[in-house]
Amino acid sequence: MVWLLWLSLVHASTGANLRGAWREAARGDTPAAILKAFHDGVLKPFNPSLLQRFPRDALGSWVVLEPTSPESGQDRVLSIYPEPMGSITLYGDNGPIRTLALDDFTAPLHGHGRLAFRLTSGSGGAEPILLKFEHSDMLSAPERFELQNLDDYLQQDSNWLAFATACFAVMVAMALMALCFAIMLRDMTFAWYTGYMLCYAVVQSIQTGFLFHPLGLSWLAGSEWLVGSSAVALSVSFAALFINRFCDLQRHAPALRVSIIALGFAMPLIVILRCSQVPALVLMAQTLVNPVLIIGAFLLLFTALVAAARGSRQAWFFLVGWTPLLVLTAMTSAQVTGALPSLDWLNDASIAMGAFEAIVLSLGLADRALTMRRDRDSVRVLADRDALTNLLNRRAWTEAANSMLAEAIDKGLPIALLFLDLDHFKVLNDRQGHAAGDRALVTVSEVLSTELRPNDLLGRYGGEEFVAMLHGVNQEQAVQVATRLCRRVHRLEIPVDQSDLFLSVSIGLAMRSMGDTLETLVERADQAMYYVKLNGRNQVHTFERRADMVGTSYKSRPANESGR
Q1: Which of 147, 161, 376, 384 could be 15's S-S partner, Cβ–Cβ 3.0 to 4.6 Å?
Q2: In what residue span(s) does the GGDEF domain sit (predicted)?
């Protein structure tokens, strides 16, 4: 994968080898005494190229690093990775040189994702380097050390900066895009995703120092631990609320839905307790947060597995994005206890996996949106179509016919409306049953659909009545079409009873005239159809309204009349 290539570039070691030793600080310690103890071999040895945890809960810890391959005559950089949450002091022969921390903005050389001490060429190439890990109430994570010449350090630092910037840019871009969709679609699923992704980006940017260098958010200095722990808790809360809607737990995992929603509201409550500044409440929050986080993370994983097993397509997207992060988090937690000391890339892998999860969940949201759109379109089709004949029902046909009529009026095109009613259909139903009647309706509707053009509008008006709007045809052409429909239906030879009587259709025709609405057009075609019913059936009659005549006249054309 691409991110593995990035990590290989970021963690490519080009610096000199180091030998290290350490011990916890005690009262009365002096830099000279610690260096003497180092030369005497009293301190605990460790490999600086592997992750090592140094306690800070008392007075801190002393660390001595000795280059095994000195490089004189050029500036070097001592980097400490990952960037520790507390401060570290670098000592020299004449007292402390400087103290660096995650939120320091005064150092001439800022490390990105690590602390960096620049050692000038005049400091000696093989002299031991003495560090003091100062006391801190924050949890101490393991660190490793690397000594490089300045050019190699700057190259590695620029690689990491490009890598981290790309990952954070992906997370923030996906989150902001989801926020736009949340506003446009009024769908809280996108909003919960936005909150989750932004909180995770804040967590990673604090742990790596990205918020301070290069972003330079100095106003967060001193409160990074509170902001980071709050962001962790809120990210789990947003993830719980997100998975509830994203994976449709009400449908696929209703038994777990209550627990997930409870988790979503419990985490903000813990954050509120932590920020209350009431000692008892703060202690309660600190006691609860880690157990709830662990339980919540595995609850989300288990819920996604259950939802996926029960048919939730989106749950698989959540699992693909969430599981690698959960594994990396577990491995990083194990490093605090001394496990996996050689896997120093886990912190950067968490950033890469955050970007990967952002992309996967965004694809899942897109898939969800497309699925919902398909479902909505299917429901709309079912709502617009007659269940038996699959023609437009009366409501849908009326909406489409109004649009067609308005377009024809704007363009000055002729419109013909046919009102069709099956002859003797009630007799067929009474004597052969409703199943036979349904089959006859389906057959007739298929014939009508075949005979009409694709741009003609055919619908079932109700019962055995059909309507058709013919676009861009004059009266003679409309009569020919209607006559052809009469013939085709009659040639189906659908028997009505035991006699030689077959199903046929009576058609009334009305042409659009000035001032017509759909209602008046349907009314005139309906009147023409009733005239057919009263005068022999199985033929076409045209309703005509003339300005120089009062009343109504009809032109009829029987089905057996010849036409073009």
Answers
A1: 147
A2: 413-545
> pLDDT tens-digit profile of 95-137?
577 888 887 777 767 788 888 888 876 555 678 889 999 888 7
Distance between CA atoms of 178 and 197, rounded to whole angstroms?
10
Residue 289 token pair = 């947060």
Question: Rg (Cα) of the chain, in Å, rounded?
Answer: 40
Spatial separation of the C-alpha atoms in residues 455 and 401, rounded to whole Å: 11
pLDDT at 545: 59
**How many C-alpha atoms does 287 have within 13 Å on its Cβ side?**
6
Question: Pairing between strand 504-511 and 539-544?
Answer: parallel
CB burial of residue 224 (10 Å; 0-12, 13-18, 19+): buried
Return d(Cα 247, Cα 245) in angstroms, integer: 6
Check if the beta carbon of residue 274 is closer than 8 Å to that of residue 346: no
Tokens (6 digits) for 193: 């995703």
Spell out the SS3 assignment of 344-368: CCHHHHHHHHHHHHHHHHHHHHHHH
Torsion 12-15-16-19 (CA) sign: negative
Domains defined along the chain, listed by start = 2-156 (2.60.40), 159-382 (1.20.1070), 394-558 (3.30.70.270)
Cis peptide upstream of residue 214 (ω within 30 degrees of 0): yes
pLDDT tens digits, one per residue of 152-199: 898 999 999 999 999 999 999 999 999 999 999 899 999 999 999 999
Tokens of 381: 């089709």
Assigned token pair, 421: 């009613």
Candidates 329, 347, 303; CA nearest to 85 is 347
C-alpha pair distances (Å), 380 with each of 160, 363, 377, 454: 51, 25, 5, 20
Nearest to 457 by CA among 375, 552, 384: 384
Residue 1, pLDDT > 50, answer no
